Amino acid sequence: MIVSSIIILIIILTIAVLFLLYNAKMDKSGMRAASSKVAIDSKALADDELQSYLPDQKIAAIKRYRELTGAGLKDAKEAVEAAIADPDRFKSKRLDALHRLSDEAQGAGVRDLIAEGKLEEAARVYAQFMGVDEYTARAAIEDMAEEFQQKSDTY
User: Fold this and answer.
1) Who contacts 58 (Cβ-Cβ below 8 Å, separation ≥6)?
2) Comparing 12 with 143, which gets the higher pLDDT?
3) Stretch (H or E) spanning 134
4) Burial environment of residue 27 by CB neighbours within 10 A (0 to 12, 13 to 18, 19 or more)
């Protein structure tokens, strides 16, 4: 009776150890990571500061994501890696619009308005031309004004 109880206990312990080893191997190989889905905060990933860190400053991006969302380290890491893997999905509208404007010839009118100190008018033109909201336009115009000021200070 005691011998059969010991044999059953050994079998149960063996199964438990094999199960733990299997799970550890799955976690290490990354096979399990593909099946676990993390809720990703798209607004946090579109944050201008966080976007400025990607893809080169991954640790700073993870810290910023955690500040914005309160997410754990693992979730933040997975979210930032998703943003690096698919940058167009989480791109900041403001940065995208700023790059488009600087590439287009029509941006010269906005730059002239900024140079004349007409920031509100420049923001309205920018918003209409780029198809962004007023808040995004004002922020982009402020960034451009600051950039122009820095350039003029260096010359």
Assistant:
1) 80, 81, 84
2) 12
3) helix 134-154
4) exposed
Q: Confidence class of residue 90 from pLDDT cuts 50, 70 and 90?
A: low
Half-sphere exposure of 143 (CA within 13 A, CB side): 16
Residue pair 38/72 in contact (Cβ under 8 Å)? The answer is no
Kindly state whether residues 97 and 134 are assigned to the same domain.
yes
- Give the pLDDT of residue 54: 76
pLDDT of residue 44 exceeding 50: yes
Residue 86: give the domain boundaries: 37-90
pLDDT at 28: 61
Query: pLDDT tens for residues 7-27?
Result: 998 999 999 888 888 877 766
Quote the CA–CA distance of 101 and 108 in Å, as a whole number. 9
* Shared-domain flag, residues 55 and 81: yes
Q: How far is CA 43 from CA 63, 79, 89, 108, in A?
A: 15, 12, 11, 30
Kindly state the average pLDDT of the residues 148-155. Answer: 69
Among the candidates 90, 115, 130, a domain finishes at 90
Q: Which two tokens stand for residue 90?
A: 């989480």
d(CA 76, CA 83): 11
Contacts with 44 (C-beta within 8 Å, 6 or more apart), sequence order: 50, 65, 68, 69, 79
